Amino acid sequence: METLERFVPFGVKKPLDAVLSVPAAVTSPRTAVILTHGAGGDMNFIHLVSLGQYLASQGFICLRFTCKGLNLGYRVKAYRAVWVLNETDVNTDSFPGRSMGCRAAVALDDALVQGVICLSFPLHPPGQTHKHTQRTEDLRMLSERVRVLFVSGTDDNNHKEMKASTDVLWLQGGSHGLTVKGRSESSVLEEVNLKVIKWLHEQKDSTEYVLFIMCLCW
């Protein structure tokens, strides 16, 4: 596996930091996974690093990047910039990809989003349902052909209202930060990584081009 640092040109502002993980042998030439973080953190968040490296070790090309802006419009523009990098830095005939972060991805181009993976996505934080209507509405607007995987340690049944095909990995005793009392961080990461790679293999067998988005929400 080769790890390459990339700097994504983004207007007149500071370039976006990115890391491209290239497998030694690509086993899925038509599947790309692009990873991003939630409102906090950056591309070096341990869950993203662990998953990105694991996916690359399994033959999936992975790009993760940092986008600090909290404004949806700003993030959509940043994601477009990342897509331009993909077009010039990666063979897009073999590795089609779109930006990630569920809301920005839908705003960017819903027609090209094939799958969304949400780590600890807080559909409705306890007692705050009225403040997060748009967050769940964006997910419900995903078309029926889009597959969605939720990885969560909290109980939230709102995914049942979605048209998109959904799968859920519940981490028994897991917190919103995907930590489990009495379990090591490495064992939790391994469980998440194995579930995600299994899910990706299931999806890529059902379509010619698979574009996946990783949304890490904190």
List key phrases describing it:
about 220 residues, alpha/beta, Rossmann fold, eight-stranded mixed beta sheet
Please describe what this structure looks like.
The chain is of the alpha/beta class. It has one domain (2-216): Rossmann fold. It is 30% helix and 22% strand. The chain has helices at residues 46-57, 72-89, 102-109, 133-140, 185-204; strands at residues 2-8, 16-22, 31-36, 61-65, 115-119, 147-152, 165-170, 210-216. The model is unreliable at 91-100 and 155-159 (pLDDT under 50).
What's a quick, concise take on this entry?
With 218 residues, the chain is an alpha/beta fold.
Ordered list of secondary-structure elements with their pairings:
Blueprint: E1 2-8, E2 16-22, E3 31-36, H1 46-57, E4 61-65, H2 72-89, H3 102-109, E5 115-119, H4 133-140, E6 147-152, E7 165-170, H5 185-204, E8 210-216
- How widely separated are the two ends? 29 Å
Largest sheet: 8 strands, mixed
The proportion of residues forming helix, as a percent range, comes to: 25-40%
Q: Based on the structure given, which CATH architecture is correct? A: 3-Layer(aba) Sandwich
Beta-sheet strand percentage?
15-25%
Q: Could you state the oligomeric state of the chains shown?
A: single chain
Domain KANL3/Tex30 alpha/beta hydrolase-like: 30-191
Protein name: Testis expressed 30
Pfam families: Abhydrolase_11 (PF20408)
